[in-house]
């Protein structure tokens, strides 16, 4: 097949989440013999406009309105459509696989105009995510947009995003979601799309994320304590991730086990607030807010940890970090928000937090510290990720979905 992927961003331009999902599956579609091109935004000027990435042809579009009042999302449908049209002059595409609503809409409209089947992957609701950001800090293209767009966004942008979401789903031949949670969410917001939906979960690179033989040597290389129980979380440092609850749980945990350490990785507006919170709670000697963890170091932090905690409060559409931790042989304790129970309850029901409040998080961390046979449990985590979520397995399911929509179009 000749496959065109249309997205806002992808790894290595951005780290984690949907960007990694798109990159890993695109790479594996190439390995399966498909000619694959990917269109995405040029996130900064250091990135080349054209290039090759793991066998994929890459074309990044810029934003001519960068620095103006208009946000990137309003221009990306037109830019993605224009680039796709230009590429189609030299390549006949069999299927267009779209992600992220605004560029995705441009890709799907291009596909419709050319009579090419369009597949859309629903990662999350932009409408709901934006609705949760009301009153929170954001980045803007210009000083003027900070004033005008902030007022407009909270009142109008989320509604506009819902319209764009609906249009993307309407124009898609088929829709994939990563979880039952996302399927229910999509059907609630856009009930007309129900018949097109299928679940294809996220995955993990089990060669990159894997256990280590000598954990002490790894901890030493990272400057981490050799003794004690190490808890890790890697998240965007924003309110809905529940990081304040995890931080507030630590004094209770330390009463029960003084040799517990918490590492928090990620970027976001809560960085300084979390550091100050640790000082205010008097636990700064046991809590380290690392900020961004370099992508090359991330697998090491997973493998060096005893437990990964996912304290999300809402909208956890899948949770790629859950699979990365499990593949590293590190058990995961997660709230019941979103899709986490779908993954973890299949492995061990003890991995799902009863409630998201600090006292409940602390209680289950302490219970886990006292669990016997943690080494064997780590092996079970690794095996579970290998048997169910390897990216090469997920690529096969995406390939089947593409072949099916192509078959429908030809019929």
Can you give keywords for this protein?
single chain; 411 residues; alpha/beta; eight-stranded mixed beta sheet; 46% helix; 15% strand
Structural class by secondary-structure content: alpha/beta
Shape: elongated
How much beta, percentage-wise?
15-25%
Mean pLDDT: 90
Oligomeric form of this entry?
Answer: single chain
Rounded to an integer in angstroms, the radius of gyration calculated over CA atoms is 22 Å
Q: In percent, how helical is the residue content?
A: 40-55%
**C-alpha termini separation:** 17 Å
Query: Are there runs of 5+ residues with pLDDT below 50, and where?
Result: 139-145
Q: Helix and strand string, N-terminal first? A: EHEEEHEHEHHEHEHEHEHEHEHEHHHH
Total strand segments: 13
Task: Write out the strand line-up for the largest beta sheet, numbering strands in chain order.
Answer: 3-4-2-1-5-6-7-8
* Number of helical segments with 4 or more residues: 15
Q: How is the biggest beta sheet arranged?
A: 8 strands, mixed
Characterise the protein shown here.
The chain is of the alpha/beta class. The chain is built from 15 helices and 13 strands. It has helices spanning 17-31, 72-87, 101-114, 126-131, 143-171, 180-189, 215-222, 243-256, 271-281, 298-304, 320-327, 340-344, 358-369, 374-389, 391-410; strands at residues 2-6, 35-41, 50-53, 56-61, 95-99, 118-122, 174-177, 197-199, 229-234, 260-265, 287-291, 307-310, 332-334. The strands form two sheets. Strands 3-4-2-1-5-6-7-8 form an eight-stranded mixed beta sheet, with helices on both faces. The chain has a five-stranded parallel beta sheet with strand order 11-10-9-12-13, with helices on both faces. A hairpin with a 2-residue loop joins β3 and β4 (56-61). The longest helix is centred in the middle third of the chain and has 29 residues, at 143-171. It is elongated and about 65 Å long. Residues 139-145 have low confidence and may be disordered.
């Amino acid at each position: 097949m000749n496959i065109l992927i249309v997205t806002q961003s992808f790894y290595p331009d951005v780290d984690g989440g949907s960007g990694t999902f798109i990159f890993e599956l695109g790479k594996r579609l190439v390995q399966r013999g498909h000619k694959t091109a990917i269109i995405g935004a040029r996130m900064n000027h250091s990135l080349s406009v054209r290039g090759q990435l793991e066998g994929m042809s890459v074309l990044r579009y810029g934003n001519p309105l960068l620095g103006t009042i208009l946000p990137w999302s309003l221009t990306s449908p037109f830019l993605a459509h224009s680039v796709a049209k230009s590429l189609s002059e030299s390549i006949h595409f069999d299927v267009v696989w779209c992600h992220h609503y605004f560029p995705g809409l441009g890709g799907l409209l291009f596909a419709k105009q050319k009579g090419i089947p369009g597949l859309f992957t629903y990662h999350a609701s932009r409408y709901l995510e934006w609705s949760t950001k009301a009153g929170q800090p954001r980045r803007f293209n210009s000083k003027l947009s900070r004033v005008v767009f902030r007022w407009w966004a909270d009142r109008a942008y989320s509604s506009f995003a819902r319209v764009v979401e609906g249009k993307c789903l309407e124009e898609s031949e088929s829709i994939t979601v990563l979880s039952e949670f996302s399927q229910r969410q999509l059907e609630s917001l856009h009930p007309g799309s129900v018949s097109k939906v299928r679940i294809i979960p996220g995955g993990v690179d089990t060669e990159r994320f894997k256990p280590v033989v000598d954990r002490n040597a790894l901890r030493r290389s990272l400057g981490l304590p050799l003794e004690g129980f190490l808890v890790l979380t890697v998240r965007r440092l924003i309110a809905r991730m529940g990081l304040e609850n995890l931080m507030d749980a630590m004094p209770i945990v330390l009463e029960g086990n003084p040799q517990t350490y918490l590492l928090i990785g990620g970027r976001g507006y809560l960085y300084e607030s979390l550091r100050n919170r640790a000082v205010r709670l008097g636990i700064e000697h046991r809590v380290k807010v690392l900020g961004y963890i370099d992508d090359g170091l991330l697998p090491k932090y997973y493998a060096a940890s005893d437990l990964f905690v996912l304290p999300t409060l809402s909208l956890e559409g899948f949770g790629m970090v859950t699979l990365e931790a499990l593949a590293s042989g590190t058990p995961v304790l997660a709230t019941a928000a979103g899709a986490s129970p779908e993954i973890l309850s299949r492995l061990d029901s003890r991995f799902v937090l009863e409630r998201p409040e600090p006292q409940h998080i602390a209680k289950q961390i302490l219970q886990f510290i006292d669990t016997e046979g943690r080494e064997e449990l780590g092996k079970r985590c690794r095996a579970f990720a290998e048997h169910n979520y390897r990216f090469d397995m997920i690529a096969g399911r995406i390939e089947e979905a593409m072949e099916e929509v192509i078959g429908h179009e030809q019929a």
